[in-house]
Amino acid sequence: MTIELRWVTAEDWAVWRPVRLAALADAPQAFGSRLEDWQDAPEHRWRTRLSLPGAVDLLAVEDDDVVGMASGVPDPDDPALAELISMWVAPAARGRGTVALLVDAIARVLAVQGVEHLELSVMPDNDRARRAYERIGFTSVDTLGDRLPDGRHETVMRRELTAERTLLAYERGADRYAERTDDHRAGLVDDLLALVPVHAHVLELGSGPGRDADALEAAGLRVDRSDGSAAFVDRLRDAGHQARVLDVRRDGWGGPYDAVFANAVLLHVPRSDTGAVLERARRAVRAGGVLAATVKRGDGDGWSDRKLADPRWFTYWDEDALAAAVTSAGWVDVDVRETTRPGAEERWLTVTARRPEEDRPDEEDRP
């Protein structure tokens, strides 16, 4: 079964009501509201709850059954902040990525509204919930949450919407980006061609306008095109190519491939998430398979509006740190070198590596 998301409004209060009551009955310790406060609430109160300004109220639906809910509510005093509330997943749907599905969808919508940070609160002794939120990008902050009757405070957790805001820049600026991208294939194409045989099967991350995929196919490789931006995927499909939207943090990559090709893609991944993405790349290729990627050389990280009107997040690397990150993710034969073109305004690093021949597929590998 596939879980789908439904955005609800005040007109859907009668659908929202039984789900909310089920959540309060199932996990009373997880909510500030109590079942007895809501079970006899009149219609206007439910409508008011679903009419919060700027709020995103979602239901997770599977085979016509509602199996989860969550809301994102902008802070009226801080347009860059929103709070995640009313999160609940039915017991039968837990452990299947439903929380991530709901939160990611809310984050994308809130990013369009200009939200930069998403916060939530959990009970201080709810380690299971805290770990679940950590897996989808939340970290605990020093801010004290609401005071509890026993004197303790709720734990506040925050997720930066860097990925959502960066993807939004590409969604809005896909045409402009394509116009400003020259027709000369990236040097990374030649690096990959030197490492794989003709007819090798390659997963390209961040295909963008499709320039490098065309060059790889012209050289005899089979390329699966993907991008985090639906706008780029639509352009590729309109040009007659098969392509899919791929979130490198959450979605299944497919495979096993002979190589993963990522030209100017990993530079948008926050440093804290890079190790996990590199491990996913390794599991997506066969034993002996290749990684070929480029990132920007430099220190730290931050936002830049160069090339596009909207800002994009960049993580900068030096040779030693990048080599260490790739090696820690289980790759071998790691080669990192600077590949900045003469006269270029920005400096670039290229990394190639292989999955060890003895690194056989295991239960973590996913087709």
From TrEMBL:
Identification of the protein by name: N-acetyltransferase domain-containing protein
PROSITE patterns: GNAT
UniProt-annotated stretches for the region Disordered: 340-367
Originating organism: Curtobacterium oceanosedimentum
Family annotation (Pfam families): Acetyltransf_1 (PF00583), Methyltransf_12 (PF08242)
Gene3D superfamilies: 3.40.630.30, Vaccinia Virus protein VP39
Lineage of origin: Bacteria, Bacillati, Actinomycetota, Actinomycetes, Micrococcales
Domain N-acetyltransferase: 17-162
